[in-house]
Design brief:
single chain, 87 residues, mainly beta, NE0471 N-terminal domain-like, 3-stranded antiparallel β-sheet, 2 helices, 6 strands, 30% strand
């Protein structure tokens, strides 16, 4: 697996996918995975570099799920890799 893969795969198990994202500006996401796990993720310390545009609360609030990739994403093309969700 490389960083950014859509699915975390374990032999014999169904790959995990993001099925719901609830943004809580300024920098928190509540993410539901396909196995029923719900994780609250505080991204405040991560919003620099390529993620810096997400400091805009209006953009951050537009987080959703890309049904095809099974990842959280924003309309500007930024996405949330599953490895970040599982930390």
């Amino acid at each position: 697996m490389k960083i950014g893969d859509a699915d975390i795969q374990t032999p014999g198990l169904t790959p995990l996918r993001v099925i719901h994202v609830a943004p809580r500006p300024p920098a928190t996401l509540t993410v539901t995975l396909s196995d029923g796990t719900v994780n609250k993720i505080d991204l405040a310390d991560q919003l620099w570099g390529s993620l810096e545009p997400l400091k805009d609360p209006a953009l951050f609030a537009q987080a959703g799920v890309n049904e095809q990739s099974g990842r959280g994403e924003w309309p500007n093309g930024l996405d949330l890799p599953l490895d970040m969700v599982l930390l």
